[in-house]
Predict the 3D structure of the following.
Amino acid sequence: MDQILEDKVAIITGGSSGMGRAGVELFAEAGCQSIIADINEKEGNNIKKSLMEKNLKADFFYTDVTNSKNVQETVKEVANKYGKIDILFHNAVDVPLVNNHDKRITELSDEIWNKITTLVLDGAFYCSKYVGKQMLKQKSGSIILTATTDALIGQAGIDAYTAAKGGIVSMTRSMAAGLSPEGIRVNTICPGFVETPHQMKFLNDPKVRKQLEDIHLMGISKPKDIAEFALFLASDKSRLMTGGIHVVDAGYTSFKGKLELFDQISS
Ligand SMILES: NC(=O)c1ccc[n+]([C@@H]2O[C@H](COP(=O)([O-])OP(=O)(O)OC[C@H]3O[C@@H](n4cnc5c(N)ncnc54)[C@H](O)[C@@H]3O)[C@@H](O)[C@H]2O)c1
C-alpha cells in the first residue's frame, strides 16, 4: 500500500470498533503510528496486538472523550511518547445510547438530552481543543470529525443526536477559520448508514435492510469506505482542503426518495 502517512502520528477516537477501527487499520497500513483512543480496553488492545504482529505501528490509550482531563492526559502522553500529533480522526460515540434512547423532542428527557449532547458535542470539543493545542505548537495537523447525514437532512426521533452532530458541522467551519491560517486543517465527514457492529441489528431485519438499501443509491457503506476518505483527509494529498463538510453516503442525501409521480404522469 502507498505509504502516504509515513512518519505521521494519528489519534483515532472510537478506534476499538466500526469506522474508527477501520481508520486505525488503514492508517497503520499507510505507514502511520495509529493510536486507538477508546473506553473499550479489551478490543483496543486486541487490535493493537494484531496490527503489531503484522509489523504495523499501533498503540492504545484508555480515553473517555466525555472527560476533559482524560482527553488532555491522552494528548499529553501521546505527544510525549511520539513527539507530535499529526492527525485526529474523531469517531467515539456510544451508539447504543443513541439508538435505544434518543427520541422526538417532545418525548426526550432532559437526562438523555444531556447525556447525548455531552457525549457527541463535548467529546468533539475536548478532542479538538487538546489535539488542536498540540498542533498549534507544530503549526500543522489535520483534524477530521465524524458527523452524520442526519445533521444535514431531518430524521425523526433522534433530536439530541441531530442537534449535537449539527453542532459539529457548524463548529468545523469556525474551527477551520480559526486554525487553518496556522497550518491546521479541519474537516468533517457525514456518513450515511454504515454497516458497523451496532447497526447490524437493523440490517439483519430484511424489511429494514430493504428500506435502507432503497434510500442509499449505491448500497450500504462498509466502515472501510468511510476510513478510505478519512485517509485522504489525513494525508497531504488533501493539503488545501479545510472547513469542508464531506458527505460520504452512497447518494442518500442527493435525492428525495423513489416517487412514482412522473411514471404516473407519463402513463
Ligand atoms: N454506523 C453508522 O451508521 C453511522 C452513520 C453516521 C455517523 N456515524 C458516526 O460515526 C462514528 C462512528 O460510529 P460507529 O458506528 O463506527 O460506532 P461503533 O459503535 O462501531 O464504535 C464506537 C466506538 O466508540 C467507543 N466509545 C463509546 N463511548 C466512548 C467514550 N465516551 N469515549 C471513548 N470512546 C467511546 C466505543 O467503545 C466504540 O469502540 C460515530 O460518531 C457515529 O455517530 C455512524
